[in-house]
Each structure stands twice: as C-alpha cells, then as structure tokens.
Amino acid sequence: MCGRYKVSTPGDELWETFDIHGEIPFDFRPRYNVAPTDRIAVMRKPHELEFMRWGIKIPNPKAIGINVRVESLNAPFYRDSINGRRCLVLADGYYEWKLIADGKKQPYLIRRADGRPFAFAGFWDRVTVKGADVEAATILTTKPVGIAAEAHDRMPVILPPDRLAQWLDPAARYRDLLDPDTDDLELVPVSSLVNSVKNDVPECAVRVEPLAAVAPSA
Fold first, then answer.
1. Where are the domains of the chain?
2. What is the CA radius of gyration of the chain?
3. Per-residue pLDDT tens for 130-165?
C-alpha cells in the first residue's frame, strides 16, 4: 500500500516537470510526510494543479480510501471514477516499513535515484466530510516490481513520464497503463521521525544507518 509519501521538490522544478501553467500558489510548501486526509497536489487536466483531500469513500465503511487495488477496478463501485475521473498524484518518494525483529520496523523511502518527481496513478470522487461535500483522491496500488518488492507486497502505480497525458485521457484504456515505472527506484533507510504524522520536516527523508537485525537466540 501507500500510506505516507513526500513531495518536497521545489515549486519551479515541479512546475517544469509536469508543465504546469500559472503561478506557484503562495501557500505551496514542501511536504516530507504526507498523511491520509491531508490536502494533496493532483492534476485532473494537463497543465492544471489542484489540491484535494487524500481519501475517498470505498465499500469498506471503516476504511479511509487512500488506496485502491488495481485488481478491484472492474467492480461497478469504481467504474465511473476510473473511466471518467482519473488524476495524477504528484510525489517524489513514498515510505514503507520493513519488520526487523522484536516488533521493530525500519522505515524506508522509495524514490528515484536521481531524486526527480513522478506521478502516481489515481482517481478522484466527491465525499462528505463534516457535512460538506469535498473533492478527494485515491492512489492505485499494484503488485510490486523490482526493488519495491523488498519493502512491501504492494506498491503505488508510478506512471512513466510518457503515460501521464494518456492517464488523464478518458478515451485511453486504463488497463494498458497500469505497469509501474520501477527502473530507477532506490530504497533509502530513513529516520523513525516519519513514523509520526506530526513530523513533516526534511529530516524525515534523510538517509540513516538502518536498524540492525537481531540474530535469533540459540
């Protein structure tokens, strides 16, 4: 799954990478620990950046729909969204936790080796939050490929740069676009600061020495 990610690329670089038009909003700031229900940067149309809530309504009423499995997209519940309400979720890394021993987990940042931003495949919908209708987005997840498989049994669908426009085109077959781009990903051990959603600071994404695995007792 993808339950925490970052998008700390400077605004001018982000604007250039995704060919976003318009001025950088005055309140746009780097995010190092984006968490469920946060306001996230998305694109529903080429050149247009918007912000939405992270988490849609899904069939399980007890869950926040921050992720939807690609294997579930043929369900009638998602048909309208995946065919007509696709979006890009902008990011430059996401976090996963690996169990070391005795319940200890090492957080890892999965990012491009060159540090460049990318986009998750997502879609959006309208949800009711505290009596108000708001627009919200979710991130699609799939079976991990390459180095991502070392961190978790799921990964977000990272779209190759040449498929971004296709993903936003409702006429394009979404099933042809779900192979994640994993060629340049690297796994970076990071601080346990990222464990708390209260920490949204650069130190969350700084490489550290990984926790040592504890050898089993004889």
1. 5-205
2. 17
3. 889 999 999 999 999 999 999 999 999 999 999 999
